[in-house]
């Protein structure tokens, strides 16, 4: 296995934990400072890991010196081309949320628990071990449950869904591990993991925990729990490599239904947070659709949409959170007319919202195009349904914009303009959204390479049982063969 | 420097000028740096005049050298290569100056420049001055990109920019609910049209192996190309493009968005819908006109939709009570006729009709705000009303029905609401309420503590009241 030049993954994972320890007993201001430093360090290390991986010219690599090699199973942390950009993305989401947390909301937002969450998310994204992923996913639910409890809200819905998710995931991993590579146990294990993924990704009809979460926990905590899309990561690591075609198709169909249903539901919501929750759900489902299509274009599109949605929806959520900080929960059944009181927030809201639906010139444009192209290649009807979902999402985004920022004049005696820290947070995301939109090729090329490698691994796994049988002319799909050939050529 | 190189340079500047304008205005809006009104107006003039002069320069070179096809290749913006199967994806940026695009881009620069000069005075010291020009910059960029697009992806890029800026301009007076509701309606229609366009674009990719118009419509310069797509595929793709064009150009059954769009600032934004935005669908059909000729059924559909829209617009325009709505439906009539001409294969006639109609509507819409004043002046001079009132009771039943139909604009939006929007909304509102009940059931929250006892003395009751 290749090695990075420094143990940067470990530092990225443990820096937020250290920050959480320091922030635990501190006041809001000190806790915020600790969170910024720890999260900044995590982001710096994550970016360095990505660069380091490019320097070692390998698909995947371990940390240098393997500080955690004493653990059972050896060093658990490994980075590859798929997860390399996901780590900085997650770290950036946490950092910018901390940056955009004003003093007014600092009292309601737990920096210590969020830092623990960050550490767990980064650790999840930096491992491929099924058992460790299961344990980390289970642990990641705990800080959120604690925050729900602290706010005096019922944790029943969240706990019920997460317990079911963890139980199914554990059962699935166990069945696959101990039931052998083939047979009923392996299929049952795969189906259990698929169900777990659908629950964690809040696919319909298991999506109510997401709505409940956005209703009851602080907006920042909800954003941080959902936007890293760790559910999709579980699908990528535990389903995609060896799941039978039928299971992948099933997950894709459920995700497709969820994408349209959530987009339509976003149009009839009364609360802005719920609009955001359903929009995020719709977009996350599109990622899952692309992952389960398992063709080169579809997978490349899904990986690109993953990054674009991660950036855009974080910006969208943070902008909405900034507005909420000023006027409280926003009713989108009526016009709120906040544009003139806060024009920059209005512009940023529009930009991030449009980026999420793949508007030209933003990072999501090429990503959605690739996804649609891949979906049409797989089955034209899937492409059409994906387009219906994005069209509905577009209407929902503009509806939210019009309801929140226009339609009347908001009378306020205090200044509702954007604060410098908020401006920094959302502008950084805007620069990435526009930069990625105007110069998309490096990102697309990197995701294509990762997608081809994932398909190669899947093909290798499906070809393995055939190793003892007489050689067949070609066990691989022609599209996959061409993808591998192109990768080899590069 | 050869004439080809010079043409290529001028063409590039013609595209870069609106891109620069849109970038400056949008970035300054985003970072809250306000340019002065004077700077905004000067920059607008500079970019529009530069774009116009360079586009005109390309035309002169084309006429001088006899070339009818100047191409600006910007290469692949994004590409996913598949070495063996050639089943790759690429987003190709290519601009073409030909007999179709040059008149349209010149028209765009002239009309948008006129509106820019007018708007900088008309909106002087308006709160939304900078917002208007930011959207104006996006609109211009979108129109120029769509007009000069050499690939379907480039056209879609411009198409989307025009859609967004148009919708936002409809809702320019955003402190009132009516313009915002209209903007939302226009945007919803546009999204529907965009989805149809994107499906058609992907289908064209699959059929022709790329989005280049010259690959799909034959190598001959417009209008002499011949599409190399089989009739069945041409019919499917053509119907999708016709749907997209109907949404964008306000053809049936989407015609009612055109008068709604007149809620924008008078008369500048109205000119976009009366003169430019409303013609973009017809322009799309002109661009893919070789495809239309691949299927007779498709041609029949185009002519039928065009004529039906023309008749509808002509009838409804006669009963409208305000000048801008009447002009909007007159636009629908003319766009319908242009569409029918395209369906009949009369491409040059359609192009001339389009350019002439856009100029006429610009003039009419610019004059619209002062028309009432002119009428009063004439009536004062004559000492009486200009037109006699018609007694509705004297009309035959059919004419009375027609009058009511026209006054209600055929209730097109009401029918769309009744058949599509309301069932959709009520279905998902029911789902929302069901989810809410299910969520409450799952939560099993402890019931709130009973409220404090209500005072019973008359004085206390009065205080409570």
TrEMBL record, chain A:
Single GO biological process annotation from the record: ATP synthesis coupled electron transport
Region (Disordered): 464-490
The keyword Transmembrane helix belongs to this UniProt entry's keyword annotation: yes
CC terms in the record's Gene Ontology section: endomembrane system; membrane
Transmembrane segments: 6-23, 35-59, 82-102, 109-125, 131-148, 157-175, 187-210, 217-240, 246-268, 275-299, 305-323, 344-368, 380-402
One Pfam family here: Proton_antipo_M
Keyword annotations: Membrane, Oxidoreductase, Transmembrane, Transmembrane helix
Domain NADH:quinone oxidoreductase/Mrp antiporter transmembrane: 181-391
Subcellular location: Endomembrane system; Membrane
Single GO MF annotation: ubiquinone binding
Annotated EC: 1.6.5.-
Domain of life where this protein originates: Bacteria
Topological category with respect to the lipid bilayer: Multi-pass membrane protein
Record flagged with keyword Ribosomal protein: no
Official protein name in the record: NAD(P)H-quinone oxidoreductase chain 4 1
Species this protein is from: Botrimarina colliarenosi
Lineage, broadest ranks: Bacteria, Pseudomonadati, Planctomycetota, Planctomycetia, Pirellulales
From TrEMBL, chain B:
Primary localisation category: membrane
Stored InterPro entries: ND/Mrp_TM (IPR001750), NU5C-like (IPR003945), Proton_antipo_N (IPR001516)
EC number, as in UniProt: 1.6.5.11
Compartments (UniProt record): Endomembrane system; Membrane
Region Disordered, residue ranges: 445-465
Domain NADH-Ubiquinone oxidoreductase (complex I) chain 5 N-terminal: 86-133
Keyword terms: Membrane, Oxidoreductase, Transmembrane, Transmembrane helix
Single Gene Ontology MF annotation: NADH dehydrogenase (ubiquinone) activity
Transmembrane segments: 6-31, 43-64, 100-120, 132-150, 156-174, 186-204, 224-247, 268-286, 298-317
Domain annotation NADH:quinone oxidoreductase/Mrp antiporter transmembrane: ranges: 152-375
Record's bilayer topology term: Multi-pass membrane protein
GO cellular component, one term: membrane
UniProt-listed GO biological process terms: ATP synthesis coupled electron transport; electron transport coupled proton transport
Listed name of the protein: NADH-quinone oxidoreductase subunit 12
The species this protein was found in: Botrimarina colliarenosi
């Amino acid at each position: 296995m290749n090695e990075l030049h420094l143990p940067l993954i470990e530092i990225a994972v443990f820096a937020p934990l250290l920050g959480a320890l320091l922030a635990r007993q501190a006041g809001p201001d000190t806790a915020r400072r600790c969170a910024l430093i720890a999260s900044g360090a995590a982001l710096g290390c994550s970016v360095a890991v990505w660069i380091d991986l490019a320097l070692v010219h390998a698909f995947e690599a371990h940390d240098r010196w393997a500080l955690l090699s004493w653990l059972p199973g050896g060093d658990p942390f490994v980075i590859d081309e798929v997860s390399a950009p996901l780590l900085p993305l997650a770290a950036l989401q946490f950092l910018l949320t901390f940056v955009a947390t004003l003093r007014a909301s600092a009292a309601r937002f737990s920096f210590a628990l969020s830092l623990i969450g960050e550490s767990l998310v980064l650790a999840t994204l930096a491992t491929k071990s099924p058992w460790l992923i299961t344990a980390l996913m289970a642990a990641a639910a705990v800080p959120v449950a604690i925050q729900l409890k602290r706010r005096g809200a019922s944790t029943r819905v969240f706990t019920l869904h997460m317990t079911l998710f963890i139980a199914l995931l554990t059962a699935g991993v166990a069945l696959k591990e101990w039931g052998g590579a083939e047979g009923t146990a392996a299929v049952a294990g795969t189906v259990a993991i698929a169900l777990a993924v659908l629950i964690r990704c809040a696919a319909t009809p298991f999506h109510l925990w997401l709505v409940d979460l956005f209703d009851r926990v602080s907006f920042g905590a909800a954003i941080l729990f959902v936007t890293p899309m760790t559910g999709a990561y579980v699908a990528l690591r535990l389903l995609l490599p060896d799941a039978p075609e039928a299971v992948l198709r099933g997950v894709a169909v459920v995700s497709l239904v969820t994408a349209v249903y959530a987009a339509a539901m976003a149009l009839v919501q009364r609360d802005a947070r719920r609009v955001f929750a359903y929009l995020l759900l719709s977009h996350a489902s599109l990622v899952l659709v692309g992952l389960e299509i398992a063709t080169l274009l579809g997978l490349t599109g899904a990986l690109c949409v993953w990054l674009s949605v991660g950036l855009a929806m974080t910006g969208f959520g943070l902008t909405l959170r900034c507005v909420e900080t000023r006027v409280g929960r926003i009713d989108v059944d009526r016009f709120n007319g906040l544009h003139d009181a806060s024009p920059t927030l209005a512009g940023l809201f529009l930009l991030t919202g449009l980026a999420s639906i793949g508007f030209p010139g933003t990072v999501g444009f090429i990503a959605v195009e690739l996804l649609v192209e891949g979906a049409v290649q797989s089955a034209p009807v899937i492409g059409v349904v994906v387009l219906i979902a994005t069209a509905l999402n577009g209407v929902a985004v503009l509806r939210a914009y019009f309801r929140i920022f226009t339609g009347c004049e908001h009378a306020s005696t205090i200044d509702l303009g954007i604060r410098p820290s908020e401006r920094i947070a959302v502008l950084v995301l805007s620069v990435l959204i526009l930069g990625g939109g105007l110069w998309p090729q490096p990102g697309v090329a990197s995701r294509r390479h990762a997608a081809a490698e994932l398909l190669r691994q899947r093909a290798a796994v499906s070809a393995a049982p055939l190793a003892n049988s007489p050689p067949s002319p070609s066990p691989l799909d022609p599209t996959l063969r061409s993808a591998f050939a192109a990768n080899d050529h590069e | 420097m050869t004439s080809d190189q010079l043409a290529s340079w001028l063409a590039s500047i013609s595209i870069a000028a609106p891109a620069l304008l849109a970038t400056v205005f949008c970035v300054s809006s985003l970072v809250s740096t306000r340019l002065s009104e004077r700077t905004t107006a000067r920059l607008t003039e500079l970019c529009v005049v530069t774009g116009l002069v360079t586009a005109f320069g390309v035309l002169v070179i084309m006429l001088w050298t006899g070339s009818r096809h100047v191409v600006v290749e910007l290469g692949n913006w994004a590409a996913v290569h598949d070495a063996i199967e050639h089943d790759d994806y690429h987003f190709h940026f290519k601009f073409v100056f030909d007999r179709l695009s040059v008149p349209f881009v010149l028209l765009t620069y002239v009309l948008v420049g006129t509106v820019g000069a007018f708007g900088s005075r008309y909106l002087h010291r308006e709160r939304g001055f900078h917002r208007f020009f930011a959207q104006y910059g996006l609109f211009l960029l979108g129109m120029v990109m769509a007009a000069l697009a050499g690939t379907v992806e480039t056209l879609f890029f411009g198409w989307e920019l025009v859609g967004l800026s148009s919708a936002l301009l409809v809702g320019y007076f955003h402190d009132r609910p009516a313009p915002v509701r209209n903007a939302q309606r226009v945007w919803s229609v546009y999204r529907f049209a965009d989805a149809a366009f994107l499906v058609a674009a992907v289908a064209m990719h699959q059929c022709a192996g790329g989005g280049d118009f010259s690959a799909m419509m034959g190598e001959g310069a417009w209008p002499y190309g011949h599409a190399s797509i089989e009739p069945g595929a041409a019919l499917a793709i053509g119907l999708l493009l016709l749907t997209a064009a109907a949404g964008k150009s306000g053809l049936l059954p989407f015609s009612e968005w055109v008068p709604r769009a007149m809620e924008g600032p008078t008369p500048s934004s109205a000119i976009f819908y009366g003169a430019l935005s409303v013609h973009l669908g017809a322009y799309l059909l002109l661009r893919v006109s070789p495809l239309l000729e691949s299927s007779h059924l498709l041609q029949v559909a185009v002519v039928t939709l065009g004529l039906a829209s023309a008749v509808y617009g002509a009838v409804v325009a006669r009963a409208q009570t305000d000048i801008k709505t009447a002009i909007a439906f007159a636009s629908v009539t003319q766009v319908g006729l242009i569409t029918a001409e395209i369906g009949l294969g009369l491409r040059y006639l359609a192009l001339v009709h389009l350019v002439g109609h856009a100029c006429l509507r610009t003039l009419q819409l610019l004059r619209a705000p002062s028309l009432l004043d002119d009428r009063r002046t004439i009536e004062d001079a004559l000492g009486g009303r200009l037109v006699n009132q018609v007694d509705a009771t004297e009309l035959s039943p059919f004419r009375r029905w027609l009058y009511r139909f026209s006054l209600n604009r055929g209730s097109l939006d009401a029918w769309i609401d009744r058949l599509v929007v309301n069932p959709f909304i009520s279905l998902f509102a029911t789902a929302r309420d069901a989810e809410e009940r299910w969520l409450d059931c799952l939560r099993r929250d402890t019931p709130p503590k009973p409220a404090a006892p209500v005072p019973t003395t008359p004085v206390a009751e009065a205080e409570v009241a």
